[in-house]
Every structure is written in C-alpha cells, then in structure tokens.
Amino acid sequence: MDKYIVGLFDDDEVLLKAVAAVRKAGVKIHDVLTPFPVHGLDTAMGIKESRLHTVGFIAGAIGCISAISFIVWTNTVSYPLNIGGKPFAAIPSYIPVTFEITVLSASITMVVSFFVRSGLSIFKEPRIFDERTTDNRFAMIFDLKDVDAGKVKEVLKQTGAVEVNEKNFES
Amino acid sequence: MSAYESQIREPLVTGSKDYHQITKDIVRSTESVPPLIWFLITGFTATVMTIGFIAIGYTVWMGIGAWGLNKTVGWAWDITNFVWWIGIGHAGTLISAILLIFRQRWRTGINRSAEAMTIFAVMCAGLFPAIHMGRPWLAFFIFPYPNTRGPLWVNFTSPLLWDVFAISTYFTVSLLFWYSGLLPDFATIRDQAKGKIRKMIYNKLSFGWTGSAKHWQRFESLSLVLAGLATPLVLSVHTIVSFDFATSVIPGWHTTIFPPYFVAGAIFSGFAMVLTLMIITRKALKVEDYITINHIESMNKIIILTGSIVGVAYLTELFMAWYSGFPYEQYAFYNRALGPYWWAYWIMMTCNVISPQLFWFKKLRRSIYFTFVMSIIINIGMWFERFVIIVTSLHRDYLPSSWVYYSPTIVEMGIYLGTLGLFFTLFLLFARAFPVVAIAEVKAILKTSGDKQKREQHEPVANGHHH
C-alpha cells in the first residue's frame, strides 16, 4: 500500500508561496499537480530545467546533416544525373528538402522524447490523486514514506491549503 | 497580483468565469448527445463527402481523362483546390505558432479549432496531387527509397518534390503540435467523466496525463520549440507551393514576388475560414464567452493586413508586367483581365482587394453577420485567385494553334465538393468529441484577461492590497 497526503489549493499564487514555505520547512514534496502550467513552479520546487530543447537541437542538426549528405550522395555517387545542366551537387536546390527534414526530425524526436521521459503512453493508468486537479484545484502531494503526516498537515494548513486528504493506492 | 494587464485591453474571457466554469463550459459539448440538427448537418456533409469519393473512384478507374484537362491546360481545378486547401490550413499554424511566439493572448480562444482546421485542410489538400498522379497506387514513387531501377532517385532539384517533403512535414508537425496540446484537456474530460468506458477512452487519448509539475515544464518547452519550428515551416510550405509556379518559365508564373504573395494570400484565406467555422461553432456550442467579438475583430484586422498585401501584390504584378517590356508577360496579364476568363479575374479582384477594405470600419469589423458573409466571399475570391493564376496563364500557350478554353467536368466538381464534405464532416466530429477551446490555456490567461478578474484588479476590494 502506497500512502500519500494530498494538499489542495485553489489559487496558483497561494500555491507558489506554499511550495516555497513547505520546502523551507524541510518537508519533501512528492509532486505538484496543476490544471494549467504555473509559471515559476519549477524553480520554486527546485526542478532542473528541461533538456528537451537540447534534444530538439541535436535531432535537428542530425536531420539536417543526414539529409544534405544523403541528397548529395544520391546525385554525385549513387546515380549522377544531369538535370537541366546544373552541377551534380546543386546545393541551393537541396535546401528546401534539407530544411523540411531538419524540422521533421527535431519535431518528431522532441515529441517522442517528451512522451518517453514523462512516461506518457496510451497504456498508462495514472494515479489520480484528486479528480479536481485537472479542473480547479492545485495539489501538493506528499509520500508518507518520506514525510511525517502530522507535520505535513500542519504546514499545509498554515500555507493556505483549502483541503487536506489522505490517498492510498495498492502498490 | 503577479499578473496584470492594462485595463484598456478588452477582456478575452467574458461572463465572470472561474476555473471550474471554464471546465464545465468546454467539456459540456463532449458529454451530451448531439442535437438533431448536428446529425442532419453531419449527414449532409457526409453525403457530399461520399459523392466526392465516388468521383475520385471514377477518376482512378477511368483515368485523368475524366477531367477537363487537355494538352494545353495540364493543371486546373486539381491544383487550384490543392493550393486553396493548403492556404486555408496556414491560418491554424499562424494562430497557434506565430501568435504564441508574439505572446498574443487572444490566440488561446481559437487556437485549438484553428489547428484542427489546419489538419483537416491539409488532408483535403493532399488528396489532389495524389489523385492527379493518375495511378495513385504508385504514389510511393515520390519518396526516395532504394529501388531496383538503378537505384534511380527522385529529382531533389524539382519544386514538385520539395512540395512532397513540405506538405508531409507540415502535416506531421501540425498533428504533433495539435495533439500534444490536447493531452491536458483530454485529461480534464477524463476526470469530469462519469462512465467507466468514457473515462477509459479519454484516459487513452490523454496518454495518462496528470498535470505533474515536471510534465508541465516539459510540455511548455515542447510547445515553445514546436512553435518556433512551425513558424519557419509554415512560411516554407507556401513558399515552396509558390515555387511550383515561380520556377517555371510560364509568363504569369515566372515571378519572384510569388513566395510572399502566396504566404499572405494563404493567411488571408485561412483566417476567413477560421471565421466561418468559429462564428458557427461559438453559437452552436455556446462558447461565445471564450470566442468573443474581440477575437473576431482581431482576426478581421489580420484580414485587412493580409488582404492589403495581396492587393498590393496584384497591382505589383500588373505594373511589373507592363514595366518589363516583355510582350509575353504583358499579354499574360492583359489576357487575365480582358481575355476569355475576365470574369474570374474580376471576381478575384472584387473579393480579395476591394471587399476586405470594408473592415476599416470598426462597426463592420465587429458585426458578426457581416464578418460571416465576408469570410465566405474571401474564400471564394481566394479560390478564384488560384484558378486565375493557373488556368489563365496556361490556356493561351506560346502557339496560338494550341489555345483552348478549359472548363471542368462534373467529376472534377464532384471531387472538389467531396473535399468540402470531408473537411466539414471531420470538423463536425471534432466539435462534438474534442475540447474545441484549449481549456488549460484559457485557464492560464484567466487572471490577466478574464472580465471579472480585470474588474477586481481595477477596483481592489477594500481590505485588499494596492498595486
């Protein structure tokens, strides 16, 4: 049995202050669930910056280099063909396809990485701590393995939680 | 308050909403059984779509000879429709990507359905080149795959091949962008759902989204980078479409003005289609508080801008044809305006150059009925623009002996109508099963742009703090 404490807030600004206060009190936050992206929440929780854009850049660069090399290879090595008297490696004419492949590789790789790293898939049965977290509530989740229930409840009450619940899942 | 917006700006969400009300308002249309009128309209559009598929089947069976094309006019309705649909799609990407980068908050009310429109329009567009091949079962020849003919590769220097890559990339990226944005809203529908099956379906659609802080952080990073990629992409797509014409040596096509002129025209017609759809959707699904008259006015302003660019482009073309001193180019434009297709040219001129200028009047810009009529007129005009560019430039060849007059056959008309049917059927299904307004995004701007919230900022409650 996995036991959690769920502190619910009804305002993003109260939540941000609460996250800072809870961390200051030395209580470990398991996760924070919000119905929309709350700016500054990641820094308040001490989450490192996402490296997703770096993944996108690397994938785009690989796509770009592969595309242009492949096209040049087809027209100079594999099957050189005189098209309209242009040089075999007619680089300017290859830019459009190279650009499209760059964008395509960066986009697909980023979306796939996003799903894989976040563990999202059509087979995922997520733990729903509270059904209102996709509606109008902001939830701070605490794992009872890491924290003391009494202390958490006290801190949550002080920081403006509108509701504090316990939630258990079969592990 | 950390978030503040000038009181001069009109609120983007009206009706004194809170977060829960937004959820209810948007999820509602996915929860109820659609009204009878929805079934009637969807039945009608699906019938039109079926007629289109029959016409496509006939074309594939009989060959391209089923169309009115001939030796002189090798491109006509097929490519006109292709360019028209692709152009319509561009508005969705503009709204979701370019307006995101420019931090335009009003995009949040309309981006979801505009992106859906993009995807459906690109599907319609993609049909035409495939059918036009005549032997669509050999369509895979357009991809550079290792083959036993040499291997003989595709021609990477041809704009037609660039088109293959541009359109398929555009479709894929638009779909990924749209779907990743839908995840949080599918999760909202899941958590509002009562039935078990319904919960399961929307959980699958949401990929198990929960709204974890780390996921949101990645989500934001993803949507920003995808927007950054989609912006040059959308410009490249219509630029490449214009290259199909501009890199040829046909008088009337061989001009450097084409890429910006085509991109502006695409956004122009796309916004008109967004307006056509939004004006009906907001009324039918009762989401007028999210797609407000201010949204409509903002879109009309973009229509004036892009419509004026299109108008300047038409006049520049005429001027350059005269100024070039090149008789073939001069004749191509003389023939457009005063030749056998004069009527198409003047429909184009009236619909695209003159009529959008009426939006300079604030009263007309904010009139829903006027905007609706205009949105249809603009799309008629933009269809004729592509028809004029394609057919009038081709039908009088260099050799007067090959001059012809092109008219479409009923099969071509059927295919065109069929794509309209396909487009509207998909949109109608989307409007009942998917969240038509980006729920999470509207919630995120509520504090700055909601009418109630703006009022409260303006008149802080007595015991509240001051700015």
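The radius of gyration of chain B is 24 Å.
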